[in-house]
Design brief:
Layout (H helix, E strand, L loop, with lengths): L16 E8 L12 E8 L2 E5 L2 E5 L4 E4 L5 E5 L12 E8 L1 H8 L6 H4 L8 E4 L1 H12 L6 H13 L8 E3 L11 H17 L6 H7 L4 H12 L3 H19 L4 H7 L5 H12 L3 H5 L3
Antiparallel strand pairs: 1-7, 2-5, 2-7, 3-4, 3-6, 5-8, 8-9
Helix pairs in contact: 6-7
């Protein structure tokens, strides 16, 4: 599958399965959407996943299932953008065009569950446990498969998706806001880039509203409709997500972490961290 330009959806081909291997310095870093459902194995690389109303981190070994036409971005950490850096990313992704599948097999009873599987993919899921292990093994080698073997493995992967299982961890609130216009998509991409690049400092509402060419009032409505959070809540979630990483991966003190991710006071950081994680920063660090 060719790279997806932000919110310019590629035309669906007469193919149910499209396979893509991402290799390079960082993952595609624009907020985007496409009409195919997506199953991604993170082979190498770390960063933040923004999908719908969800903000979280991704790391090697993670497997994610994304619904069709849901805005998302796997944003690599800043280390991956350094000049002359040695860090690399690798990701293997399957795209499923259920509309193509429906055209081909809608009249065949044996394919009924497969054709209607897309109706169960509401939002983004993180796949864990034994399901993740089995899917990971197949995705790691998927580039070796072709023809009927590829189709067979694809159908087997889809058969493993049991949405009643604890292995399927939903990441979004329901219902999910899907599909933005190209104009709104580009506007959200510009806003998200600005927030991600500046989240470690104090960002005023006026600044971010200017990125969207909106008044403060109009921007607040626009942003909350698409993220289910106020601008302040969203920035706090980004900062806490980054703090969780630093607490586990560095020896910085809790106070240093607090200021590095953009909180002005330690007390505000501690309160916000506990509200969002139900743990104190100290307890979180003990998870290492």
């Amino acid at each position: 599958m060719s790279k997806v330009i932000s919110f310019q959806i590629p035309k669906s081909e007469n193919s149910f399965i499209q396979y893509q291997e991402d290799r390079g310095n960082h993952f595609y870093d624009s907020l985007h959407q496409h009409p195919q459902a997506q199953l991604t194995l993170i082979v190498e690389g770390r960063g933040q996943l923004l999908v719908g109303d969800y903000v979280g981190r991704f790391q090697p070994g993670d497997v994610y299932l994304l619904a069709e036409s849901i805005p998302h971005v796997f944003r690599s950490d800043s280390d991956y953008y350094e000049d002359n850096g040695t860090l690399k990313i690798r990701g293997n992704t399957l795209f499923f065009d259920f509309k193509a599948m429906s055209k081909a097999f809608s009249e065949v009873d044996d394919f009924h569950d497969l054709v209607h599987l897309n109706e169960k993919i509401a939002g983004c899921f993180k796949i864990t446990g034994e399901t993740k292990e089995e899917i990971s093994k197949l995705l790691a080698r998927f580039g070796e498969f072709s023809g009927l073997t590829r189709l067979g493995h694809c159908i087997h992967i889809l058969s493993l998706l049991d949405f009643t299982s604890k292995d399927m961890m939903p990441l979004n609130q329901i219902p999910i806001l899907k599909t933005m216009t190209e104009r709104d998509g580009r506007r959200m991409d510009q806003v998200m880039r600005f927030i991600l690049d500046n989240s470690k400092r104090q960002i005023s509402l006026e600044e971010v509203a200017e990125q969207a060419y909106m008044s403060k009032e109009a921007f607040c409505r626009f942003f909350k409709l698409r993220t289910r959070r106020t601008f302040t809540q969203y920035v706090q979630q980004l900062r806490v997500t980054e703090a969780k990483k630093l607490l586990l991966e560095t020896d910085l003190s809790i106070s240093q972490v607090s200021y590095q991710v953009g909180f002005q006071t330690l007390s505000h950081f501690n309160k916000t961290f506990k509200n969002l994680t139900e743990m104190t920063p100290k307890d979180w660090r003990k998870l290492e």
